[in-house]
Amino acid sequence: MPLNPIAYFSLEFGIDDSLPIFAGGLGILAGDMLLEANQQQKSFIGLGLFYQTEENNLQAVTNQSGKPLLIPVPLGKKVIQVKVWKKLVGQTPLYLLDTQVRGNSIDDYNICNRLYVGDKEHRFLQEIVAGIGGTKLLAALKISPQYYHLNEPHCALAIIQALIQTRASNPQLSFRQVFRQTKNKILFTNHTMIMNDHYAVSKELAAIYLAPYAQALKITTGKLLQLGRGKNPRVFSLNQLALSGSIRINAVSRLHSRVAKKIWPGFDFIPITNGVFLNRWLGQPLAEVWPPTQIKPCSKEKFRQAHQQQKRNMLQMVKQQTGIKMEEKILTVAWARRLTNYKRPGAILKDIGRLGLILNNSDRPIQLLMAGKVHPNDRQGKQLVRVLTELSRKPKFRQRFQFLPDYNISVAQKLVGGADVWLNTPKRGREACGTSGMKACLNGVLQMTIRDGWTDSVEWSKLGWTLDSDRVAEDIYRFLEGSVAKMYYQTDPGGLSPEWLSRMVYSSALIRKNYSAARMLNQYEKELYL
């Protein structure tokens, strides 16, 4: 066990489908981070929550007596007990905290019953368990992290427990000195462009649950709550706590860094663009002809053949899920990610009549695949799922459009590996980074994208197509009717489109060079883990 690792806190981790403790890109990124740290044999551990699943490939963490290790976590006037599970990601440990302990009340027993479900109070209790409990776990295991790295504000309460531990070790210090000393060990990765209230609870609610921590720090509850005071004085903001309590903060793309600086002008945001773990997201056929460790590309013909195999694999998956056999030779466009309003999954549906004509064009037909998950409390998202499902059943669309509701890692791997075009439609200024396009690009899938997040830093003129955020639907239709379909179907006597194939190879090379998790982790070491 590393004694001075990077302690990487995240409310979700996407390692594989057998352990579904993730909701979207944030968890997948955290999973890629652990996979890359393991590959590079870095001193690194993950800390998160165990949401109730049927996963049985976990090891219970025990104390010196061989009994389950229990971490006491104060919640206002009571103390709950939290047990701990351990999963090895290669040789990199991931610790998951679990409130289903005999003796906890039924409400406390179910704090970690599901990810991102419930009201703000339920979420806040999860955040206390993750941040406070995770930090106390490290102390119980006698692990002194080099840094506490907070992935999003959800884990910001780790700062408070770290303050308590600094105070206990240095009782002679003033609170200001304790805060300064603790801050030197806290790092924060911001993934959002949403103001502080999104990661906030009322001051009254925070005061109830955080009172024992103020007492441990020997300060008033009011003074403790000041650490989370942002522009709205009526709430306690975890985002503000993370910003003010971290020695260094990073954004996850260059554009995100500039936008975040405007939203929170008192802080500096180091731009460290996210990356993807190549071994997980590069399809096996392509990996065989152009391994992730090989700089020189394979021949274009080998690349084409490998991608075609991945496309066949993808279409076979679609048939298994929907019963519809789509055609390998038809240009296939994919949109797949979390179904949320700012990502605009419904943009391509703005004119259903025109879309139907595009998909069923007799000379240059197009197939459209959509996939995604919706938040359990998102009524608008659930309505969109119904619309997409109904559309996929209409005779005019059945062979040309399908929606895959059971979106998970294995489905994502097939889609990013086998599509021809990847569609990315967020409202500009809302996507901090976005990594689904990186995964597709790695596999030679051409991008049709809003310039937002990581895509704002790429010159797309010779790689893909950029959409105007203010007329996104019109641009999608125009490109599909025109240059996209024309380039794909403009083939030589051998059935190849030379320009399309060149763009595929260049796209894959771009991700390998600039947007891998290896580059991301190395940049963290140089600019954050100083």
TrEMBL record:
Entry EC no(s): 2.4.1.1
Keywords: Carbohydrate metabolism, Glycosyltransferase, Pyridoxal phosphate, Transferase
Database matches in PROSITE patterns: PHOSPHORYLASE
Reaction(s) catalysed by this chain's protein: [(1->4)-alpha-D-glucosyl](n) + phosphate = [(1->4)-alpha-D-glucosyl](n-1) + alpha-D-glucose 1-phosphate
InterPro entries the record matches: Agluc_phsphrylas, Glyco_trans_35, Glycogen/Maltodextrin_Phosph, Pyridoxal_P_attach_site
GO biological process, one term: carbohydrate metabolic process
Gene3D superfamilies membership: Glycogen Phosphorylase B
Cofactor(s) named in the record: pyridoxal 5'-phosphate
Pfam families assigned to the protein according to its UniProt record, in alphabetical order: Phosphorylase (PF00343)
Molecular function as annotated in GO: glycogen phosphorylase activity; pyridoxal phosphate binding
Superkingdom of the organism of origin: Bacteria
Role, per record: Phosphorylase is an important allosteric enzyme in carbohydrate metabolism. Enzymes from different sources differ in their regulatory mechanisms and in their natural substrates. However, all known phosphorylases share catalytic and structural properties.
Entry similarity comment: Belongs to the glycogen phosphorylase family.
NCBIfam families for this protein: more_P_ylases
Protein's recorded name: glycogen phosphorylase
Species annotation: Candidatus Gottesmanbacteria bacterium CG11_big_fil_rev_8_21_14_0_20_37_11
